[in-house]
Amino acid sequence: MATARILGRASSASPACSAAPRPAARPWRRRQRLLSARKYASSTSRRPVSVSDYCLDTIKTYEYENFLSLLLLPEQSRPAAIAIRAFNIELAQVPDVTSETLMARMRYQFWRDTLDQIYKGGSPNQPVALLLKRAVEKNKLSKWWLKSMIDSREDQLENKQFPSVTAVEDYSEKSNSVLYYLVLQSMGLENVHADHAASHIGKAEGLVKLLRGVPFLGAKRMVLLPRDVMMQHSVSQEDVVRGIQDQKMKDVVYDIASIAHQHIEHARSFMKDVPEEARVALIPSTAVFAYLKALQKADFNIFDGSLQKRNSWLPFTLWWAKFRKTY
Fold first, then answer.
1. Which of 46, 118, 246, 314 is the most exposed place for a label (fewest CB within 10 A)?
2. Residues 6+ positions from 292 with CB-CB distance below 8 Å
3. Could you tell me the pLDDT band of residue 49, with boundaries at 50, 70 and 90?
4. Long-range contacts of 118-126 (CB under 8 A, 24+ apart)
5. Residues 141-165 pLDDT 10s
6. pLDDT 10s digits, 124-135
7. CA distances from 321 to 180, 215, 283, 316 (A)
């Protein structure tokens, strides 16, 4: 209809107006516009990118849900949290960017050496390392916790199947819960209840990451699901690799998701004891809970295509949690 109205207006114009030729652009004006466009393109394409922008873009690319959560943190706390999350992504990607186990171990050793340099006042000229150095100097981040992130990743380097749910929880404590400890520390918050909540949220997040990775890892013939739960429901590794969607597989997923849900509920059970200013650091638990609800809606079929789609309501859900001072 809009097109018809525009055409109608054009046809109602006088013949003299419609037939009038458009004046040709003067060469010097055309050249001036071209030079201005080139100047603008050159200045924008060569604009330097800060290490903070680089790390934030990395988080947005690989951990979109955590990217959204970072934007809700107080502005003064955001740089350190960005550094912590970007450092975690660097460690998580080591197996994917190295072709051999030995090369991967060398890469982890590089980050151990980098931590030693940072705590001595130096740093290699690498974006994540530079931003992490600023966070350590400003916020006095625990070296032990940062090193725990490296050690836990290297221990799981060969993608060994977890023998039990407890083993997954232990790994999640060292690789996920520690992220929340560090973010809380960067905000200058020391509270035993906040740390307790962070521990449970990190374990829930680790269990959910394990579930979300099943289709991707199965395509690479890798199975990390805890052996005890698989044996309990008579599910073999080949069943997972082949993407079998029977009730036994759903029962495995249900059991693991239920434990993750229990961790979230436990963390929320003493929310009143967690300082309000600390709750915003724990908001990623809202995204974990949202995925568990989506998994329930999919009848615990981990291979359901709907689970691979981005949750368009998540930005509002996270903002609402911040507004209500919950997690």
1. 46
2. 208, 257, 260, 261, 264
3. confident
4. 119/143
5. 999 999 999 999 999 988 789 999 9
6. 999 999 999 999
7. 17, 30, 7, 9
